[in-house]
Structure formats: C-alpha cells, structure tokens
Specification:
Layout (H helix, E strand, L loop, with lengths): L6 E4 L3 H8 L5 E4 L5 H6 L7 E4 L9 E4 L2 E5 L4 H6 L1 H6 L1 H7 L5 H6 L2 H7 L5 H8 L3 E6 L2 E5 L1 H4 E3 L2 E2 L6 E8 L6 E7 L9 E10 L2 E10 L6 E2 L1 H7 L6 H12 L12 H23 L5
Parallel strand pairs: 1-3, 2-3
Antiparallel strand pairs: 4-5, 5-10, 6-7, 6-10, 8-9, 11-12, 12-13, 13-14
Helix pairs in contact: 10-11, 11-12
C-alpha cells in the first residue's frame, strides 16, 4: 500500500521544527523512518504533516558533556556502534546495538526513533533503562529532561506531549572497573527479542557496590529487576548468589503471549538470560575475559 497524502517540511533548525509542530493539525516527526514509514504505508497512521529533522546538525552529535555522554536523537544505530566515545565509556552500546535489525536499518534508523517508537522488545529502551539515562525533550514550554520510567508509558506510547521532540539522550558515566553485558533471545538474527537482558556490576574490594539488571520483551516497557538488584548489593559474588538473583528477576512477572512465544516460555527464559548477563558482567568487573 501507499501512504495517505501529507504535507512535508524539511526543517533546518530545531526552532523551525518546533514551530511547524505547533502550527496545528496532525503532525509527525520523521527521522530514519524505519518504523513510521511502514506504519504509514499500511495506513496505521495517517499524519497530515511530516516534519523532517534530518537537516538539524546538532541532533546527530555524540559528545562528552556534564559527566557523561550525550547522544543526539538523530544518531544512527551504526554511528553509535563505531563511536570512540561510546566504545570507551559504554562498550555495552556496541554489544547491544549489533542486535538491532539488520545493517540497512542500523545505517538509517536512529536512537530517537527507536525510543519514541517505544517497542518494549527493542534494544534502545532497555539500554536507556539500564544506564539510568535522562531523555532530553524540547517543546513549546522549553527544555525538560525525564527518566526512562517517566518516558515509557506502554507499548508504542511515550510521555511526549503535543509539539514536543525528543532531542538527546544523556548517559552518566559508570565507575571505573564496572562490568556490563547484554544478551537477547530471538527467533532469528535481527528479529525483536523474545527476552533480552542487560546487566551492570561494579565491585569494591570484592563486594558488589552497584548492581543493575534490566529486562526487555517481558512487560509493557523495559523494566529494572529491582528485587534481583537488591539481592546482589553489598555481597560477595558467588554462583549461588547470581543464580538466586536471576530467579528473583522473573518473580511476579506475567509476560504477554504472542506469535513469537508463549508467556510460559518467556518466564522460562528470563532467569537463563539474566544469569548469563550477570555472570559475564561480573567477570568483566573483575577484569577477566568476556
């Protein structure tokens, strides 16, 4: 199918884009178009107006700023895979983003587009949830920053208000010696995850000083496994400790069933994938091989 008729503007500045969104009517922002265009072709969405933000240069930048890394919303997946700054401070980005779809989509798709699409099985929602990111939003009332749990509301639904644009992601640096890991299970390479998990482990004198575990594909949004994190904190890492934390990650969850997997299968996978990332992150925190 073809999309319904629409008007189009290639904005050159952020102010121009915001002004166009504020002019009224059903307007959508287009960047990489990897999610929006297929939905338009199937007429699942029929915007009256498209605001193209690809010509706004500052939205494509990756820079170190304010004790962390700032990634513009227009940064392509492939760009984040190769960024020296991202590789140095957040190797988990490359480990995770290599699972995003296929090369053509990684070359064109954007970080911001993935986040705004808000698929709970996608990789970037899990990453920003795991990394305690702040999401930078510009709109008619100026600039605001929100945490991932404020931004993601439900599948394909975010906290963006009318006229607002997600402009950047801010990632605070991790302590020296922190280990990170990501893994996902999917039917085929490039498919959305049936279950995915990311872990962060920081050790001090052999004791867990920080533990984070995030899960994707198992709830309406990417989530943090808080009970598992609390179980690890302040303790010496052992195989038994990580096994118990992995089991806690699945407790209380009721994943949806779909064409790809049953709820029972997802529940079966959660502790397996969680344990793998916890063990790998802990080895990296200890300075061992991955």
């Amino acid at each position: 199918m073809k999309p319904a008729a629409f008007e189009y503007l290639a904005a050159k500045t952020l102010d121009e884009a915001l002004s166009a969104l504020a002019s009224g009517g059903d307007a959508k922002v287009i960047a990489g178009g990897q999610s929006l265009v297929p939905m338009m072709n199937f007429r699942l969405v029929q915007p009256e107006f498209l605001v193209d933000i690809n010509s706004i240069p500052e939205l494509s930048e990756i820079e170190e700023r304010d004790g962390g890394l700032k990634l513009g919303a227009l940064v392509r997946h492939a760009q984040s895979l190769k960024s020296p700054e991202a590789l140095r401070h957040f190797p988990i980005i490359a480990e995770t983003v290599q699972h995003v779809a296929h090369v053509a989509i990684r070359n064109r798709g954007t970080i911001g587009g993935s986040l705004v699409h808000a698929d709970p099985a996608a990789e970037w929602p899990l990453l920003v949830t795991l990394l305690d990111a702040e999401l930078e939003i510009h709109g008619p009332d100026g600039l605001r920053r929100v945490a991932p749990d404020e931004f993601f509301i439900a599948p394909l639904m975010t906290g963006l208000e009318d006229g607002e644009i997600l402009t950047a992601v801010h990632l605070p640096y991790l302590p020296e010696g922190t280990g990170t890991a990501f893994e996902e299970v999917s039917q085929r390479a490039g498919d959305f995850a049936i279950v995915s998990a990311g872990a962060i482990i920081a050790l001090k004198d052999g004791i867990v000083a920080e533990a984070r575990l995030a899960l994707g594909g198992v709830a309406d949004t990417a989530i943090r496994a808080r009970a598992a994190e609390e179980h690890l904190l302040g303790k010496t890492l052992t195989t038994e400790l990580m096994a118990r934390a992995s089991q806690l990650a699945a407790e209380g969850l009721e994943p949806n069933a779909d064409l790809h997997a049953s709820s029972e299968y997802r529940l079966h996978l959660i502790p397996i994938v969680a344990r793998r990332v916890l063990e790998r992150a802990s080895r990296r925190a200890e300075g061992g091989i991955s």
